[in-house]
Write a structure and sequence with these properties.
Helices cover 30% and strands 30% of the residues. It is built from 4 helices and 9 strands.
């Protein structure tokens, strides 16, 4: 049985990643997953936060925000008055990218990953992670060419996708309508080696079984492999 947008239960929304989307950032990418569009930028700053000083290690952190016109009703800007949801998401993005990075390769320098949602139709946090990885790789490539960092940083790929249980069916890559109706909602972050970085799962209106969890993880693995391929294609074209 097809979903509301015609997809099969195990089918991603159409994915497009546009590299170098902005002119001035060290690295950038616009990711489109269906009607969710997020612009991701990576900016290089010399020096590290105080807790990293004299360690020889760099730092990588993230910020996330939704533009006022990104949803059906105007949202208040989140950068100056960050809400709990945005704070949770930006921490997730930062953890996900640090998990695949060797921060000694940055030297004592910092990369800020900014993920700004232009249009939201579900899955903004997972799209942000997938797009931020491309922005990071483009930035690192440029920084190494310019001799600004001493070594290799990104050791493997990383991408993320949502899965859930909607009206008793397990579905991959939920849009907003599906997410709002989900009995169970999960966000899965995985590396290119098939390792889990983060598994966020909760029963919104119902509990779920181990068998259903295994099914959702299998769906997520399928989707993330396709997202990793899209990332590789984008980076290869550059």
């Amino acid at each position: 049985m097809a979903r509301g947008d015609g997809r099969r239960p195990n089918q991603l929304r159409p994915v497009e990643i546009i590299p170098d989307y902005t002119k001035f950032a060290t690295g950038s990418a616009l990711i489109k997953t269906g009607d969710t569009h997020v612009v991701c930028t990576a900016s290089f700053i010399e020096g590290v936060p105080r807790f990293r000083e004299d360690t020889g290690l760099g730092w990588l952190t993230a910020e996330y925000g939704m533009l006022p016109g990104s949803t059906g009703e105007r949202r208040m800007g989140t950068r100056t008055r960050i809400d709990g949801r945005s704070q949770e998401i930006q921490r997730l993005i930062g953890r996900s990218l640090r998990a695949i990075s060797d921060l000694s390769g940055l030297g004592e320098n910092t990369i800020y990953l900014d993920c700004d949602v232009l249009q939201a139709d579900g899955g903004t946090r997972t799209a942000s992670i997938t797009g931020a990885y491309v922005a990071l790789c483009l930035a690192l490539r440029k920084l190494r060419q310019e001799g600004k960092i001493p070594g290799r940083v990104a050791r493997k790929g990383v991408a993320a996708v949502s899965v859930g249980k909607v009206k008793g069916r397990l579905l991959l890559d939920l849009n907003y309508e599906e997410d709002a109706a989900a009995e169970v909602d999960c966000n899965i972050v995985m590396t290119s080696r098939g390792e889990f970085v983060e598994v966020q799962g909760s029963g919104e209106e119902a509990a779920f079984t181990r068998q259903e969890l295994d099914g959702m993880l299998k769906l997520a693995g399928r989707g993330i492999r396709q997202l990793l391929q899209a990332q590789r294609r984008t980076l290869a074209e550059k």
